[in-house]
Amino acid sequence: MKRWSVMVVILGLLMVIGHVERVQCQPLRIGALYPVSGALALLGDESWRGAEIARQMRNQKGGVAGKQVEFMKVDIPDGNAAKSEAERLINREGLKLLTGTYSSSLCLAASEVAARAGIIYFEQGGISDLITSRGYKTLLRTCPKAQYFSRSQVRFARDWVGPQINKKAGEIRLALVHEDSAYGSSISKNVEAEAKAAGVPLVSVIPYNAQAVDLSSVILKLKSDKPDVVIGVSYANDAILLGRQAKELGLDIKAFIGTGGGHSLRSFQEALGPAAEGVLNVDFTQYEVNTQFTPGLKEFVEMYRKLFNEAPRSGHSMANFTGTNVLFDLLEKTGGNMEAAKFRQTAAAFELKTGSTASGWGVKFDDGGQNTLADPFVMEWKGGKLVTVWPEGAAVSKPTLIRPFSK
Amino acid sequence: MELFIQVAVSGLLLGGVYALLSIGLTLIFGVVRIINFAHGELLMVAMYLTFWLFQAQHIDPYLSILIVAPALFVFGMGVQRFIIQPIFDSPALMKIFVTVGLFIALQNLALMLFKADFRTIQTSYSMATIDIGNINVSVPRLVAFVFALVLLAGLYAMLKYTLTGKALRAVAENRVVAQLMGIRVQRLYLIAFGLGSAMTGIAGALLLPFTYVFPTVGGIYTLLAFVVVVLGGMGNMAGAFLGGIFIGLIESFSGVYISPALKEAVYFVIFILILLVRPQGLFGRGKGTEEVGLK
């Protein structure tokens, strides 16, 4: 009888200890929303891979605040799915923090749900200005917003092209050529605002229809306005057509700066051949970048190859790798606490200087939750490759002033 | 002044491209009296064929005309024989729907075979120009312009001087009477559809060096070709050429002097105004010829 009671006491103790241990080992659960099927699948999946690599690396090093991290990955191919999956993760799974999303429209839908539930939404890929301008206190974004693309372009024109052609900010003639759907039109407003802020005169703004079979009138209008630097916002086919007709009609400008999109595609380079040489582009950090400026990038690429048996398919994975690491750093600081007010407060006080993350971005969140130190870099087509040329720290080679579309 | 001349030159060259696109359509339209909504898709097929010949067989696009034009001739005859002829006695609306069905089928077939990528080819003359002072003339566009003129002249001569041509004109004017005179109408329809398609094939091969092809490219060209054909006067070959030049010039001038975003709006407004005054088009043969799909 005595032995029995001892056994029971010991068993009971063991159970209590076991329970305590289980509570301590309970992983941190985070909802990861990415489109991995449907039209956005390719880059949605690429984005997810970046986040997943960050998680595995962190878990190998002992996790966050002493706990392993778990992602509840959900597929959100469209806006309806984004909304309903966010609701499910919050209400049924009881998650306290969501991240994602690659696509701006999906982020807008999912973060709306999170905001209503008072839960942090941590965006790493959607660039629409609208995401952080809604005034939600539950939203944070690590990647650049659309406006920063225009900011980089105008600053490059002023700070690098200007001195090269012996012109002060007020003397540089800047022009904008943009396709006239929502994409191009929203960027055009940003360029106008940034040019004004930088004191660079915008001498012409030329919208055009991306479906047009001929863009000679765009080029001729540019010729008559005589700009030094042209900023272009194009899809794939119109970027090619513009380039070809610029060459045919002998457009004489100092520099052409694209805005991601068509000017970053391999098909653009293939269609134009040598005429693409010297064309500049502003985009998320790519892999042809100075690795001293991007600590952790090499390890990231190694891990990527090991896990997925191929080279990264685009810079999206790197952006999400960086973002997820920032998320983990913040959770480390809160001790794993995901409560919105506390998390946001910690984020506001958190700072990393430029050139200290895998994508080279710094971290400093503003009141809207936007990371103000995430700057898109300027790249240039050189020898058939798009290489980072500006800012200096991130550059692998110096920018060269080749008259675009001339060769 | 220099800009003005350059705008005019660019407009003329663009007009040549539009004319080239439309000659085949206006032939099919004038003789067979069918609104062929799959016209742009015929062009797309020709462009993919040219693309494939260049990429896989290394045949220059201009040389590939010798293959593309006969191929499209046969393809066009096939469409007429197996798709349009069987429903020839049904209402005009049915025939329009058949061509719409054809265009959707061809588009999706191309999407399946070639994916949605934009394909271009790089030839030595793709971006070549002839420079006269500061005026630049694009070589491949100039070639397209010249071909449009040559095709037009050839077609005109054929219609005027050969027996087949005379028979085609007879069928175009009055199918029933032509049949009574012993003309084998169905056979001539086959020839007309084949010829129209072959011309569209030539247009495709000439366009590819300086534009791009993707599965849904046809939609853009179909609309343009219809505007040109209706403006020029349906079934009128010279009208199609002049209509093309007219639209090209309007587009070029309104693009530079108003705004590139508004150039389509400008030429459609002018198009509507012209049709209000002259429903038969600028060079139409008079009232009645604008009716389509006669049974």
Distance between the termini of chain A: 97 Å
- Global Rg of chain A: 24 Å
Order of helices and strands of chain B: HHHHEEHHHHHHH
CATH superfamily of the largest domain in chain A: Response regulator
Give the low-pLDDT segments of chain B. none
Q: Output mean pLDDT of chain B.
A: 90
Concise summary:
The complex is a heterodimer of chains A (407) and B (295). Helix content of chain A is 45%, strand content 17%.
Short key terms for the protein model shown above:
heterodimer; A: 407 residues; alpha/beta; Rossmann fold; 2 domains; 7-stranded mixed β-sheet; 5-stranded parallel β-sheet; 13 helices; 45% helix; elongated; B: 295 residues; mainly alpha; ABC transporter involved in vitamin B12 uptake, BtuC; two-stranded antiparallel sheet; 11 helices; 2 strands; 3% strand; globular
Structural features, described:
Chain A is an alpha/beta fold and 407 residues long. Chain A has two domains: 26-144 and 292-364, Rossmann fold; 147-283 and 377-394, Response regulator (Rossmann fold, 3-Layer(aba) Sandwich), CATH 3.40.50.2300. Helices cover 45% and strands 17% of the residues of chain A. Chain A has 13 helices and 14 strands. A seven-stranded mixed β-sheet of chain A has the order 7-6-8-9-10-13-14, with helices on both faces. The longest helix of chain A has 24 residues, at 2-25. The mean pLDDT of chain A is 92. Chain B has 295 residues and is mostly helical. Chain B has a single domain (2-114, 136-277), classed as ABC transporter involved in vitamin B12 uptake, BtuC (Orthogonal Bundle), CATH 1.10.3470. Chain B has helices at residues 2-32, 39-57, 61-84, 92-114, 139-161, 163-173, 175-180, 185-207, 217-232, 237-257, 263-277; strands spanning 129-132, 135-138. Chain B has a two-stranded antiparallel ribbon with strand order 1-2. In chain B, a hairpin with a 2-residue loop joins strand 1 (129-132) and strand 2. Classes of the chains: A alpha/beta (407), B mainly alpha (295). The interface between A and B is medium-sized, with 31 and 34 residues.
